[in-house]
Specification:
mainly beta; 6-stranded antiparallel beta sheet; 3 helices; Immunoglobulin-like
């Protein structure tokens, strides 16, 4: 949550301030995984006169987008680029009537396709370099397709003769895995290429650079009869990769996402056993994977999107935080985890695109269900502000018994430990004893509240879980419990 959304704090007691200060060293010294950045949904302004709003297909790490736009009469479309609200026409070759963009480098080089809706044999591939548009087939022959373009100027191309790195118009071709049946999908800034190819009897995902196969992605216990067992689809500047892999599971052989880093491949099988399949679609610079997961079995299956990192799945719909914006697709991700998303706006209704932008490196995520006290009210715990060293947080407890006393418990992870009468401890294992007492203002059931501001020490980093327990004789346990909050400080 951005600092602009902080509530105006109530004046805390000296005891309350001291109690909250005791919480901060716990945050500063823990290193548990979880949480993640806080995001803001940003519209993509700008357009072309005489055209429908552009649809964007890809993004780079310096704020650039590429896509396509169709004229208002729906007669033809052109490729376009976007930077800081300004839309520029890339162009359209004569005789073709629509376009798409596939990739854009941080240098502004871009690749895509010009299409003929009535005759696909006329389709051709284009390269934008230094503001000049080139027909790839005019240099490399019929059937040559530019797949991706790197920051070093290399263009990843597939031709009837094989897969190559092309230095551009008038330049050289270097084969990728020569003599093998290769499908390549992405190139990293250092020239690492990922895709899949046949290795012996298996088709496997690979990482390749400068004539050397750096790694292949094996199956996770798939039957020997499985031939097509993995594919790598994206790679970042650190040489990490993602894609999909066939894996043996208790429900049989399934396709799931993977994350490859430092020679190790990790299966990313979805946040629970109800997810029958998943795919790693995009990879950010910090190792965050955009995962498309399928929950349930066909024909009642549902597609859901997650941002995965270090074993933690964050639903991207939660990062959007607007119930009117129904997520349809995550089109791309930048190195800093900024995402290009396509949504259905239920308030209009219409299909739209937005940028989902990290506004704070840390984040606070509410989870779990508390248990009621006086009047049937369930206390609510919220932690507002940007969880980063030197920033101000507001920790608030509301909807509690007026005039009561609250305590905070701090743990290393989310939990559901029964405490009796339907109440759960949502933070465990605990870090020290309860933090408090925190005297609550107000009078009457559900009217008790307190908000305590505090500054996180510089250098704070880690993840903790927090829950409020409010002394309340109306509860069979003697206390009413709040929801939990997972606080990730970066």
């Amino acid at each position: 949550m951005s600092r602009a959304t902080l509530r105006r704090p109530l004046r805390p007691s000296a005891a309350g301030r001291a109690a909250l200060v005791a919480l901060l060293p716990l945050v500063a010294t823990t290193t548990a995984a979880g949480g993640g950045p806080t995001y803001a949904v940003e519209p993509i302004p700008g357009g072309l006169v005489g055209f429908h709003p552009p649809s964007y297909d890809a993004m780079n790490d310096v704020g650039g987008l590429v896509g396509h736009a169709t004229n208002l009469n729906d007669q033809y479309g052109v490729a376009v680029s976007w930077q800081a609200g300004a839309v520029t026409t890339i162009g359209l070759f004569g005789g073709l009537n629509t376009a798409r963009s596939d990739a854009v480098a941080n240098t502004g080089d871009a690749v895509g396709r010009f299409l003929h809706t009535g005759d696909s044999s006329l389709d051709t591939s284009w390269l934008l370099r230094n503001g000049q548009l080139h027909d790839v087939e005019s240099f490399l022959g019929d059937g040559a397709v530019a797949v991706d373009v790197g920051d070093g100027g290399e263009v990843l191309v597939e031709t009837p003769a094989g897969t190559f790195l092309w230095s551009g118009p008038g330049g050289t071709l270097a084969p990728v895995l020569p003599g093998q049946d290769v499908d390549a999908f992405a190139i990293a800034p250092d020239g690492t290429v990922v895709g899949h190819a046949r290795f012996g009897s298996k088709i496997m995902g690979f990482l390749w650079r400068n004539g050397t196969t750096l790694a292949t992605i094996p199956s996770f216990g798939a039957p020997a009869s499985e031939v097509f067992v993995s594919s790598a689809v994206d790679v970042n500047a650190a040489g990490e990769a993602t894609g999909w892999v066939r894996a043996a599971t208790p429900n049989g052989t399934q396709t799931h996402a993977f994350f490859h880093s430092n020679g190790q491949t990790t299966l990313v099988a979805g946040p629970g056993p109800e997810y029958a399949a998943s795919r790693g679609e995009h990879l950010a610079g910090d190792g965050s994977v955009v995962v498309r997961a399928i929950r349930g079995a066909f024909p009642n299956s549902v597609v859901e999107w997650f941002l995965w990192k270090d074993g933690t799945f964050r639903p991207i719909v939660d990062l959007i935080g607007d119930s009117n914006l129904q997520l349809s697709w995550v089109d791309d991700v930048a190195a800093d985890t900024r995402m290009l998303i396509s949504v259905k706006n239920l308030a209009v209704p219409s299909f739209e695109q937005y940028l989902l932008t990290p506004v704070c490196p840390g984040g606070a995520t509410s989870y779990g269900v508390g248990c009621a006290g006086a009047g049937g009210f369930v206390p609510a715990l919220a932690i507002d502000g940007c969880p980063s060293g030197g920033e101000t947080l507001n920790v608030s407890v509301t909807q509690a018994r007026g005039g009561a006393t609250a305590f905070l418990v701090v743990g290393l992870a989310r939990a559901e430990v029964p405490m009796g009468s339907g109440c759960d401890l949502l933070a465990a294992p605990l870090l020290g004893g309860p933090v408090g007492p925190l005297p609550l203002g107000g009078a009457g059931a559900g009217q008790g509240s307190v908000t305590l501001p505090a500054v996180l020490p510089a250098g704070s980093q880690g993840t903790v879980t927090v829950q409020a327990l409010v002394v309340d004789p109306a509860s069979p346990t003697g206390h009413a419990n709040s929801n939990g909050v997972e606080l990730c400080v970066q």
